[in-house]
Amino acid sequence: MHVLLSGASGFVGKNLAHKLIENNFKLTLITRKSSQIDRFLKDRCTILTYEKDTPEEILKRLKTDDPPSIIIHLAAQFKSDHNLKEITNLIQSNIILGAQLAEIGKILGVKKFINTTTYSTSISGEDFDPQNFYAVTKKSFEDILFFYSLEKNFQVFNLTLYDTYGPGDNRLKFINLILDAAKNKEILNMSPGEQEISYIYIDDVIQGILDTIRLETNSFWNNFSLHSNEHYTLNKLVKIVEKSIGTTIATNPGYYSYRAREIMKFKPRHSLIPGFEAKTTIAEGIKQIIEKGCNYEQS
User: Fold this and answer.
1) Is the pLDDT of residue 298 over 70?
2) Residue 1 needs a FRET pair 20 to 30 A away by CA distance; which of 145, 185, 252, 256 works?
3) DSSP string across 235-258
4) Which domain range does residue 34 map to?
């Protein structure tokens, strides 16, 4: 099976690309010129550079005897806050690129388009109620995909992805800030910490996407969530990390105010992927991070 994948330089995308290769998928990557793709993938994948190749050129190169049958679109530009200068990049990355891939998929006759979106499209967990401009752009692209599903060009699987984590993740996620504070014996400045969150371990994320690839349904529009079985406040998460690593972490709750339109409750809008269940608890995930990439001094 031939998969066209965007976002392979990101944390989720890199792990997914490796797993697809290990499972004998043929893989073509859509990347930016500045993207860092590791040697393992460079040696095993066809790589098309988005800035270098126009969408027309990408389409031409994909028109082979074995065109992709599935598109997985992970690429995104994230900004929790934005300024005037960043609007163009957010729209280009989160709307235009995806729309071009959808049109390419239509022309090539792909069977499935798997898209990852964000739970921040609704701060209430109900109707569209975006947290920030980033969430607005992600929802805008969902609406574009819905149009393609109405035309029955391909089946759309729109996955609402919750917070991801795991070894090798260097993003400024709250769980990484906790671990860094523990490692460096620093005070963790944070908000009051009563907002709820659900972290899902990277192996479970990848399994959920693989389950979606294999999922058979008669519907052209499919909404699912991808999250773990656990949710907790940020304050509770600090305690979980402390117990997992055997170290007390000094915190300063209330140093930061809650963000505008903060998401306070964990309220998934859609059901999980049929048959999917996250297997890694947050305690087990923290243990994996420490064993595979971190050297924390435990008391």
Assistant:
1) no
2) 145
3) HHHHHHHHHHHT----EEETSSPP
4) 2-161
